[in-house]
Design brief:
By secondary structure, this protein is of the alpha/beta class. Helix content is 49%, strand content 13%. The chain has 20 helices and 15 strands. The strands form five sheets. Strands 2-1-3-14-4 form a five-stranded mixed beta sheet. A four-stranded mixed beta sheet has the order 6-9-5-12, sandwiched between helices. Strand 7 and strand 8 form a beta hairpin. Helix 2 runs antiparallel to helix 15, helix 10 crosses helix 18 and helix 18 packs antiparallel against helix 20.
Length: 487
């Protein structure tokens, strides 16, 4: 009888211990929020127009549903442009007179987030996300956000983009019908350059009494992406970062291919860049096609506006061109959201909002307006897009829909890439963005002046397209990069 009582006591103790462990474990993961005393969060972003309206609508929905239930109230503020947002964040960190307090959440590209992280101002998001939750997001998006020295997450992926090619179909068909040009040729960067030359010569020939007045065919936004992704396609990681240390890779052979297929066509007038963005240049009829962000689709014009009048145009969406023989890399871009280091309540609440915003339905609703790609693996498909449109009764602009569908349908064959963050990364990217583009614009102006004096295009461009000209640029380019990185 005594032995039986002993066993009962032992079993009782084991059960009690198990219940106690369960209770304690539950307490450890208990939400620090109190619906009766809501936590207020501020979000700074750079969305404007329809993007801002879509984001604000989702914020309002969150506040009325999950936010009300959990005790979270979100207020969003547009800071204008990306640069305006970055300036506001830096002013807040530096405590400048008149600066607003740091927001709880703000949009940030990796280079800027890296600077803020170095100042110790970002929350460790890994503390609030399980491995199971992280595994639901596109792997490369999560890896981009691991900018802390210990590899923990600092940038929450919220909306991403890549690049596409958009073409003025109406004028393309006129050109193609007259010359036999093919869209197949536009799948490679070399093919784009050759087609641009053919277009220049064809348009020049339309006015035989005015020599040298051919028109540019193509342009691209974000020349820095051309360098980073172009080199990656050719097997070279220009900014190779390991353990926080960056190695610069600038081999002549690969950079010559980039120079030959951007600078040379620009100097000769086959490529062009005139307005703030290349979609502006399509609108003014200065170019027919461009490579730009998926989020730029909404800005592709519905008509060409000339001094003599305007006419409607249709469009074609294609995957961005790849170097001939190169690997199919595409840029991974788009700001994520970072959370300011504060206290457990605010950090926890911020992550709860971001998890809700990135749920497939919510994220795709935002993407249908903004042209941004969703960040969950399950959401990156045409089928999921169709389902959300049907379920929500959404009206999606055809350009945005075609843009997203083109990327979703091609994702299996492409590898998204973005370089890891490093010290002075923003300065190095500016060299990629402006060094060659500015040189090409200046030299093109000289060529145009020579054409006006009666020189042929071949003679006018000759001094700028030699091996010696490349070598001079190459040395100045490397010097500028090294200066930016080591300043």
């Amino acid at each position: 009888m005594e032995m039986t009582r002993s066993r009962v006591k032992k079993r009782y103790f084991i059960c009690f211990a198990a219940v106690l462990v369960f209770i304690l474990a539950g307490c450890g993961s208990k939400s620090p929020l109190d619906p009766k005393n809501p936590v207020s969060l501020t979000v700074w972003h750079y969305y404007n127009g329809s993007q801002q309206a879509a984001f604000d609508s989702l914020v309002e929905e969150f506040n009325d549903t999950v936010g009300r239930e959990k005790g979270i109230y979100v207020q969003s503020y547009s800071q204008g442009s990306v640069s305006d947002l970055e300036s506001a964040v830096r002013d807040a960190i530096d405590g400048k007179v008149g600066a607003d307090a740091m927001p709880d959440i703000f949009s940030s590209y990796a280079d800027t987030a890296y600077e803020v992280e170095q100042a110790g101002a970002l929350a460790n998001l890994s503390d609030y996300l399980s491995q199971e939750e992280l595994s639901k997001y596109v792997d490369s998006y999560i890896e981009e956000g691991r900018i802390a020295a210990d590899g923990t997450l600092r940038i929450f992926p919220t909306a991403k983009s890549t690049e596409i090619m958009m073409i003025n179909q109406t004028d393309w068909e006129t050109f193609a019908g007259a010359t036999g040009a093919s869209l197949e040729d536009l799948k490679t960067i070399e093919g784009v350059a050759a087609t641009a030359q053919a277009y220049y010569e064809w348009t020049d020939g339309l006015t035989p009494d005015v020599p040298g007045d051919g028109k540019a065919f193509y342009g691209r936004d974000a020349v820095a992406n051309y360098f980073i992704i172009g080199m990656q396609q050719l097997g070279v990681e220009i900014f190779q970062v390991e353990n926080g240390e960056m190695t610069l890779n600038v081999p002549r052979e690969e950079l010559y291919r980039l120079w030959e297929n951007y600078y040379v066509p620009t100097v000769k007038g086959y490529f062009g860049a005139y307005g703030s963005f290349r979609s502006d240049d399509v609108k003014t009829g200065d170019i027919l096609a461009y490579t730009g962000s998926t989020s730029s689709a909404m800005y592709f014009p519905d008509q060409v506006e000339l001094d003599s009048g305007s006419y409607p145009i249709d469009y074609i969406v294609m995957a961005a061109p790849v170097f001939q023989g190169g690997r199919n890399y595409a840029v991974q871009q788009g700001a994520g959201m970072v959370v300011s280091k504060s206290d457990e309540q605010h950090e926890y609440a911020a992550v709860e909002f971001l998890k809700w915003f990135t749920q497939a339905d919510n994220n795709l609703r935002f993407g249908c307006v903004s042209g941004y790609l969703p960040v969950l693996k399950e959401a990156n498909s045409s089928q999921e897009l169709e389902q959300v449109i049907a379920d929500q009764g959404l009206s999606v602009a055809p350009k945005t829909y075609d843009c997203l569908s083109t990327i979703f349908n091609g994702m299996e064959d492409m590898t998204l890439y973005t370089n890891k963050s490093f010290k002075n990364g923003s300065a190095a990217r500016k060299v990629l963005e402006y060094n060659l583009a500015d040189r090409a614009a200046e030299d093109r102006a000289s060529v145009v002046a020579a054409l006006a004096q009666g020189k042929s295009l071949e003679d006018a461009a000759a001094p700028y397209v030699t091996e010696e000209a490349f070598e001079a640029w190459y040395q100045s380019f490397c010097d500028a990069l090294n200066h930016a990185i080591n300043k």
